[in-house]
Amino acid sequence: xxxxxxxxxxxxxxxxxxxxxxxxxxxxxxxxxxxxxxxxxxxxxxxxxxxxxxxxxxxxxxxxxxxxxxxxxxxxxxxxxxxxxxxxxxxxxxxxxxxxxxxxxxxxxxxxxxxxxxxxxxxxxxxxxxxxxxxxxxxxxxxxxxxxxxxxxxxxxxxxxxxxxxxxxxxxxxxxxxxxxxxxxxxxxxxxxxxxxxxxxxxxxxxxxxxxxxxxxxxxxxxxxxxxxxxxxxxxxxxxxxxxxxxxxxxxxxxxxxxxxxxxxxxxxxxxxx
Length: 274
What we know:
The protein has helices at 2-34, 39-48, 51-54, 57-73, 86-97, 155-163, 171-181, 198-219, 233-246, 248-254, 256-266, and strands at 75-78, 113-117, 121-128, 134-141, 143-145, 150-154. It is of the alpha/beta class. Strand 5 and strand 6 form a beta hairpin.
């Protein structure tokens, strides 16, 4: 009987500890947000992230709080001799947290580490064809999002994406869109939406536009979207997310239904920021 009571007490304690974890995390985040945003970080935003100046004041304030929490919770790791600095942390965090504005967020809960290479990096990839034959090859990448809690970025391309915020190409937005997609399982172009009923319109609109991009890519017809988005639905979502933030006016004019879907998902309308 005593053994059963002890087991019950341990079980109840474990349940209480787990249930209170989110409360402790929220309390800590509130404490982080109460701290003043460092002056040196503001200078980094001005120098490295001109997009920030185009945003409404309320979203600027919101973004700064997100940056503070993101940097507090995520580990940055320099690769190939790159030393991690506040410049790297703030520049990456500012772009990653754009995707969290105006929405209830748990700050990419699956993400633990951001690995930063000085330049584009080489990865060994393995593929199995329809006959079961395995092949190995090397690929040069600018960024990569893993489902096991890591994002890998090229610092050179991160800087380039931040410096030109209206060219429709941003490796940080791309990879962190994948992270949103991976919050509910393997990336498939269907991140967690607000309501179950939203998935029908999402699937219909994105499916139709994805097929259109595949056709454009196969026929070399000019498109607002990078042809890389025709690879699969996950890459399509990441590519159109880049375009949504960096070319919203052209996006809304040429693909109004798709723009509306992303506007509802991100709870933003960046047309008015530009």
